[in-house]
Amino acid sequence: MMALLNKITQEKCPICNETLSTHKSNMLFSHIVKSCPNEHYEKEFISALEGYIEHYNVPTK
Ligand SMILES: [Zn+2]
């Protein structure tokens, strides 16, 4: 689990390249959410599914 965490804690936003933050994560439920500080992008890791869901929030102009 720690190796996995280390791997995903180094990810960056694909849009602005800021390091994703984990402030929405809930370690108690192994629910890990990585999000761009500029709210472009979120990656939600779901241990029950052994996978993740990506959310893009690209501003439309
Ligand atoms: Zn971003």
Walk me through the structure.
The chain is an alpha+beta fold. Helix content is 11%, strand content 28%. It is built from one helix and three strands. It has a three-stranded antiparallel β-sheet with strand order 1-2-3, with no helix packed on it. A hairpin with a 5-residue loop joins strand 1 (31-35) and strand 2. The radius of gyration is 12 Å and the shape is elongated.
- Give start-end ranges of low-pLDDT stretches: none
Largest sheet: 3 strands, antiparallel
- According to DSSP, the number of beta strands is 3
Task: Tell me the Rg in angstroms.
Answer: 12 Å
Strand sequence of the main sheet, in spatial order?
1-2-3
Binned, the helix content reads 10-25%
Order of helical and strand elements: HEEE
- The rounded distance between the terminal residues' Cα atoms is 40 Å
Q: Indicate the overall shape.
A: elongated
Mean pLDDT: 80
Helical segment count? 1
Bound ligand species:
zinc ion
Helix-and-strand structural type: alpha+beta
Beta-strand percentage range = 25-35%
